[in-house]
């Protein structure tokens, strides 16, 4: 079915051939590289331990099958059928939906500016691991000597130890993006993802031979079946799946748009989803084997340990463990090197969403977009997150952009596409027309009913909590400025970018294959569709 959506300016003109992955393997590697990131290593193990241990795997698997994979397939279908970045693809669904695409681009922009900072920290600690540079008190070193954390507030006190590696991260990112999809993003993932897997496997095997490793694994995997009766445990499972798969904020829409017209979508999607979950379980084994060693050394139970998830696990607890374990230098280099590689491949996917949106809106080449978008994003990142307030700003922005921005994006996508526009059957048909693994009516049910209910509950409950209780120990004025201010930036940025004029109208486009099957259109196909 071809839909005429009108134009916002710019005459229709022949388009340059769209960039493509070199093949299915390249796409799968890049998609896994996007999904496997920092959250797999520092978030999943702690969430699983605190929500039923081994029993958590049941709601986790249910969440994967009923929300994670269906929304992943939805992103694939939208990106592949409408052959564009998030703004372009959503606009081709319906003109006014372009704003949702730019909302997703803005989410990626905000995440990119602080995500790069964590990669910079990882690079620094990779260097520190060779001489155990964090000393005898990793907590004081991380927040004091290294980050020089100040009280929450706007700061212009730059921290050279963060600024320099952060600048390096952005230079590398811009260079890769300038190479384009196949020669830049795909090639980088083909190098870094295998290195990440090998390094992390070595790290996990080493952790299994530490004293106390068995106690750590027992703590993680011993099931607490009573936890399955707690609704919060199920919400935690859906939250973990949702945040770890890189879904609902433009990444997989953009990545799928670079696949060839007759490319299989669902089978590679299953590979990506289960590879991501496998890495999370592998991370859980490595992290809790190591925490078991720390508990053994300190003569306490696992439950008595502090800082077992998030940045504090990574940059406080793990350095303390590395200092005490045999061969700690080697272990530390592997751990922080793996963290940096996992973060970098994810950062590439996040910034590619921004780059693709601007390329298509303003007619920029990949190199032009990499330089212009990359430099602006890098400057904002350096100004905000290489200062003494960097940790506070990162923690606050991350809370709002993920729990409100990303979840709202997912709810809006499901409701608008499935309920308002009623395009579920068309997208299901598209998936089945090009894929070997066929999706049935269950896919639409999960997207139209289950996902909006679960994610809507997550969104509303989090908004209420943030309004009534605030966040952490941060002053309300600070969370209003950085937290709610982030939401304002997302919305305003999306509206402004929607209003701006297209260099070349994206509306002279015919989706393929025709829907309903056998339908014809009098419109001349664009070169993109015809080839």
Automatic annotation (TrEMBL):
It comes from Cellulosimicrobium arenosum. One of its GO terms (cellular component) is membrane. It holds the Pfam family SNF. Keywords: Membrane, Transmembrane, Transmembrane helix, Transport. InterPro entries: Na/ntran_symport, SNS_sf. Its main location: membrane. This is Sodium-dependent transporter. It is a multi-pass membrane protein. It is found in: Membrane. The keyword Phosphoprotein does not apply. The keyword Nucleotide-binding does not apply. The chain crosses the membrane at residues 25-44, 56-78, 99-128, 158-179, 191-213, 233-258, 270-295, 328-348, 369-388, 400-421, 441-461, 481-500. PROSITE patterns: NA_NEUROTRAN_SYMP_3 (PS50267).
């Amino acid at each position: 079915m071809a839909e005429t959506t009108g134009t916002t300016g710019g005459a229709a003109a022949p388009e340059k051939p769209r960039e493509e992955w070199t093949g299915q393997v390249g796409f799968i590697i890049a998609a896994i590289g996007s999904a496997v990131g920092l959250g797999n290593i520092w978030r999943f193990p702690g969430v699983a331990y605190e929500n039923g241990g081994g029993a958590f795997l049941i709601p986790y698997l249910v969440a994967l099958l009923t929300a994670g994979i269906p929304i992943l397939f939805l992103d694939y279908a939208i990106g592949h059928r409408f052959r564009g970045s998030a703004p372009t693809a959503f606009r081709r669904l319906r003109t006014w939906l372009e704003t949702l695409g730019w909302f997703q681009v803005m989410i990626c922009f905000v995440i990119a500016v602080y995500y790069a900072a964590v990669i910079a920290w990882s690079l620094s600690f990779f260097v520190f691991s060779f001489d155990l540079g964090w000393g005898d008190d990793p907590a004081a070193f991380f927040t004091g000597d290294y980050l020089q954390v100040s009280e929450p507030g706007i700061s212009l006190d730059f921290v050279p130890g963060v600024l320099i590696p952060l600048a390096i991260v952005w230079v590398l990112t811009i260079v890769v993006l300038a190479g384009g999809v196949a020669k830049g993003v795909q090639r980088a993932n083909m190098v870094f993802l295998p290195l990440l897997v090998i390094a992390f496997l070595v790290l996990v095997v080493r952790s299994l031979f530490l004293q106390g490793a068995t106690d750590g694994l027992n703590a993680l995997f011993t099931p607490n079946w009573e936890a399955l009766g707690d609704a919060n445990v199920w919400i935690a499972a859906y939250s973990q799946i949702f945040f770890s798969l890189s879904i609902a904020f433009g990444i997989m829409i953009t990545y799928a748009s670079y696949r060839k017209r007759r490319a299989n979508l669902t089978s590679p999607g299953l590979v990506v989803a289960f590879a991501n979950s496998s890495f999370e379980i592998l991370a859980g084994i490595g992290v809790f084997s190591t925490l078991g060693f720390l508990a053994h050394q300190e003569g306490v139970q696992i439950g008595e340990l502090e800082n077992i998830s998030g940045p504090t696990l990574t940059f406080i607890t793990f350095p303390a463990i590395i200092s005490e374990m045999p061969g700690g230098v080697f272990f530390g280099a592997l751990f922080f090197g793996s963290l940096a590689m996992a973060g970098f491949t994810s950062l590439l996917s996040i910034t590619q969403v921004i780059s693709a949106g601007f390329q298509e809106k303003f007619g920029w080449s990949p190199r032009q977009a990499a330089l212009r978008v990359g430099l602006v994003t890098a400057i904002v990142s350096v100004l905000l997150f290489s200062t003494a307030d960097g940790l506070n700003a990162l923690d606050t922005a991350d809370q709002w952009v993920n729990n409100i921005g990303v979840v709202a994006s997912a709810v809006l996508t499901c409701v608008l596409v499935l309920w308002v526009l009623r395009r579920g059957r068309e997208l299901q048909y598209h998936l089945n027309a090009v894929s070997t693994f066929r999706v049935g009516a269950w896919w639409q049910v999960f997207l139209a009913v289950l996902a909006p209910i679960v994610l809507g509950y997550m969104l509303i409950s989090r908004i209420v909590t943030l309004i009534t209780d605030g966040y952490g120990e941060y002053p309300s004025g600070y969370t209003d400025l950085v937290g709610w201010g982030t939401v304002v930036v997302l919305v305003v940025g999306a509206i402004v970018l929607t209003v701006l004029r297209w260099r070349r109208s994206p509306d002279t486009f015919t989706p393929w294959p025709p829907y309903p099957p056998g339908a014809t259109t009098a419109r001349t196909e664009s070169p993109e569709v015809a080839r």
